[in-house]
Specification:
heterodimer; A: alpha+beta; five-stranded mixed sheet; two-stranded antiparallel ribbon; 15% strand; B: alpha/beta; seven-stranded mixed sheet; four-stranded antiparallel sheet; 16 helices; 20 strands; 18% strand; globular
């Protein structure tokens, strides 16, 4: 088979540039295979995150020809091979080196969300129909591609006030868990900034697990925020009774 | 005097953040200990995340006749009775509680029609026993444990690799490592240390294991004076992908067979009829792996050198619901629609039954202050592990190790870190930068994988194993001369050059033990000693460091108490 050219960002927070590498193609090759081949034969210090190489761990997120992808799932033969394949790190996070970015912000946001806590007197009998909806959210592999592509984070850098799609998915999984007893709706409104999302569905488009992030997680959560805080009738009752 | 380095002090240091490490951390936190978890990858990406088929526990939700006794018997028989009986007993007895606990921490398993946790069939298990979430059970487990641990408040040190255990006299007092990101060094001071670093598969060419599985914990413990048990027993999972080349070895869950998948050779023969007519595709992994290997070797393999595995007789919707990641994996990576036609599969290095020798109740190793759990520890699985028994192992013995490590920490004063050891560890870590003209570590890794694949594989001989030991010696010399380019900032080549040292230690241990065991048992198949011998069933292998050399000796297997003997004798 022929060669392909990968144009990979090499550099760190001080700066850097794209470097071209020629890689011999093999059948069924994915972009991560090509990056590994470059490490082994041309640039041993090339930095890339990866673990499972099977789209189960969500480590090898990058931007391939401008599109946020898992490199382990992106087939070389799905890309135009007559021109260089451009591989860049995720743009929404600070660069560490080459294809590796600093995603630690995500772990900080995650800490704000109270974990599952069973409601009092929960009976542990529940049915597949009760869990189907939540199991969709539990598929998330934390690749952070949804965070990377969300314009609130990518273009507007609202990391201090907005949690991003990944954490709405997690919160939805908790709020819709049949046994959970915690109310995270005030948190969604006040600390996770769900109001900033204007449902452009960019996150849904890039999700490698095909989670319907916007339709199934974010919109229902937005509705719950509205019900709890902006329902006119409840607002009047609240005003009269003086309750918060 | 360790002010030169970034130092963190805790009661309990846990190395590894897969299922065992996280479960240990949760238990140690519950005991009031201050806990550090150090992991080579980001939190939540450990190899546990790749576990697919399920978690074995005798809940008896589907098959009412199941109980811990049957699970114990299945585990012992699957392990060809070489298992530590007490571990097998504790494992079978405690697994159901560990599953319920996971559920109470928010895990959502697939459900039965009457609202309980659903269980599926798996090889070697008498009853439907594997609690599961489609084919992504490991992800569910790791996310549940991760969320629980974060909420309880462990300190996590991500993308940090430990290269040395530090000792104060006889006892372990901490660890030395580097941040993968910056390349800076860091030391951890702790009253007790739990090793939960998983397996060793990255020494083989065809493996289901991720880059992390380089035997770190076993090598670190060995260097610190701990004993390694039964290292010859390496499991080759019967079904890894064989095509295309980039995904060779990638796991195809046993759940495919659990859900009714059928194995055939290129002539369309259902060959398991020949090898295990009673259990067929759901025979134990050692048997199925050897059967596929033999079919291929004798010329009845598929175009890419494997066997056909077919689930397409089941309704497409069912396959997509029960095996979603298999469906996507084959569709996207191999252009195969598994609802319409067969997969091509072949054996892949998957798991090591051997590991650090520990006390069954506490996970305590032979070195004071050092504990181990999960794949890094040996004993539970004997000569062959049953599918589904790993995830339950992580929970049962992760909890026990965390508990014991916390109790140990309560009765111990903080130990000191030895500056001389730290300086030596630093010297060793930096050496690859200082050498000129040495070899690229990737070449050495490639050669090691070829050697282990070809000479220490499914079928072994005296000649091959001796040759492997000679080759490993040569690699040890070559590793001493590796050279890495670039800076310490996230330098993959440097990381590999350090990982290689530990890979070589565990590869050597495995080969020594395989050479010494002159019989075939479970996953250890000797062409020159094809029979399972009663005499060999009475002893385990222990490897320990003597001076600079590896010393191997036999220890008698503990006697089985009468009540357990009776359980084993019952025929079900």
């Amino acid at each position: 088979m022929a060669d392909a050219t990968l144009r990979i960002f090499r550099g760190d927070k001080e700066g850097g540039q794209a470097v071209d590498y020629k890689v011999p193609l093999t059948p069924g090759m994915v972009v991560l295979d090509a990056v590994h081949s470059i490490q082994a034969h041309q640039a041993p210090d090339l930095a890339v995150r990866w673990n499972c190489k099977a789209a189960k761990c969500g480590s090898c997120s990058a931007e391939v020809n401008g599109k946020p992808r898992l490199m382990c799932k992106t087939r070389m033969d799905s890309l135009p091979l007559d021109q260089p394949i451009i591989v860049y790190p995720m743009k929404a996070f600070p660069i560490i080196k080459d294809l590796v970015t600093d995603v630690s912000w995500n772990y900080k946001v995650n800490k704000k969300i109270p974990a599952f806590k069973a409601r009092a007197g929960a009976s542990w009998k529940f049915y597949q129909s009760d869990v189907d909806r939540v199991q969709e959210f539990r598929k998330c592999i934390e690749c952070f591609l949804c965070q990377n592509v969300c314009h609130v984070l990518r273009e507007h850098d609202k990391k201090d006030v907005f949690a991003g799609p990944r954490f709405f998915v997690r919160t939805a999984g908790l709020e819709m868990h049949p046994m959970d007893g915690v109310n995270r709706i005030p948190l969604l409104k006040e600390q996770l900034g769900i109001g900033y999302c204007n449902i452009t569905k960019c996150c849904t488009e890039v999700c490698p697990e095909e989670i319907h992030i916007t339709d199934n997680a974010i919109i229902p959560l937005k509705e719950r925020v509205v019900d709890q805080f902006y329902d006119p009738l409840t607002m009047i009752v609240r005003k009269i009774s003086g309750a918060k | 005097m360790t002010s030169k380095y970034e130092t963190h002090e805790h009661d309990v240091l846990i190395i590894g953040a897969g299922g065992a490490g996280l479960r240990a951390a949760i238990e140690a936190l519950a005991q009031g200990a201050r806990v550090a978890v150090v992991c080579k990858s980001l939190l939540g990406k450990a190899h546990t995340v790749m576990a697919e088929g399920g978690l074995a526990a005798a809940m008896a939700n589907v098959d009412k006749a199941d109980d811990w006794r049957t699970h114990f018997r299945d585990t012992m028989r699957g392990g060809k009775l070489l298992n530590n009986w007490r571990m097998a007993q504790l494992h079978a007895q405690e697994a159901p509680d560990r599953v319920r606990e996971l559920e109470q921490w928010g895990a959502l398993f697939d459900r039965t029609e009457n609202g309980e946790i659903l269980q599926r069939a798996f090889g070697g298990h008498t009853f439907k026993r594997l609690c599961h979430v489609g084919d992504r059970t490991g992800l569910e487990m790791i996310r549940t444990l991760q969320d629980r641990g974060v909420e309880m408040g462990f300190d996590v040190f991500m993308e940090c690799t430990i290269t040395r255990l530090l000792k104060d006299g006889d006892r372990v007092s901490g660890a030395f490592g580097y941040w993968r990101e910056s390349g800076n060094f860091v030391t951890f001071k702790a009253k007790s240390v739990v090793i939960a670093t998983g397996g060793i598969g990255k020494s083989w060419k065809i493996t289901s294991n991720s880059w992390e599985c380089t035997g770190d914990g076993m090598a670190l413990a060995y260097e610190a004076g701990a004993e390694l048990l039964d290292m010859e027993f390496v499991q080759f999972h019967p079904t890894g992908m064989v095509w295309p080349p980039g995904v060779q070895g990638l796991l195809v869950t046993e759940a495919v067979r659990g859900e009714g998948g059928i194995l055939r050779n290129k002539n369309g023969e259902r060959f398991m009829e020949k090898y295990d007519p009673k259990r067929m595709e759901l025979s134990t992994r050692d048997v199925v792996a050897r059967s596929i290997y033999t079919e291929v070797k004798e010329g009845r393999g598929t175009p890419h050198g494997g066997a056909f595995l077919d689930i397409s007789q089941k309704p497409a919707e069912y396959v997509k619901r029960k095996l979603p990641s298999m469906y996507h994996q084959f569709k996207e990576l191999a252009d195969v629609d598994i609802t319409k036609g067969p997969m091509e599969v072949g054996p892949t290095c998957h798991y090591v039954m051997g590991g650090i020798r520990v006390d069954a109740e506490t996970g305590q190793s032979s070195v004071p202050g050092l504990f181990a759990a999960g794949e890094a520890a040996g004993g539970l699985h004997g000569a062959n592990r049953l599918g589904g028994n790993s995830l339950s192992d992580l929970l049962v013995f992760g909890r026990r190790a965390g508990l014991s490590a916390a109790e140990q920490a309560k009765k111990t004063a903080a130990a000191a870190l030895d500056d001389a050891l730290i300086q030596d560890a630093e010297r060793q870590a930096l050496a690859p930068f200082e050498r000129a003209g040495g070899e690229n570590p990737y070449t050495i890794h490639h050669d090691l994988q070829e050697i282990m694949q070809n000479l220490v594989g499914i079928f072994r001989t005296d000649e091959d194993l001796r040759k492997a030991l000679v080759e490993i010696e040569k690699l040890k010399e070559r590793v001493k001369k590796t050279h890495v380019e670039g800076t310490r900032l996230f330098n993959s080549g440097w990381h590999l050059s350090l990982d290689l040292q530990r890979m070589l230690t565990v590869s050597e241990a495995c080969t020594h033990a395989a050479l010494a065991r002159k019989e075939s048992r479970g996953a250890h198949s000797r062409l020159d000693f094809p029979k399972t011998e009663d005499e060999w069933g009475k002893k385990n292998h222990v490897i320990v460091k003597k001076g600079d050399a590896m010393s191997l000796f036999e220890v008698p297997k503990p006697d089985l108490p009468a009540d357990l003997q009776q359980i084993l004798a019952e025929d079900k």
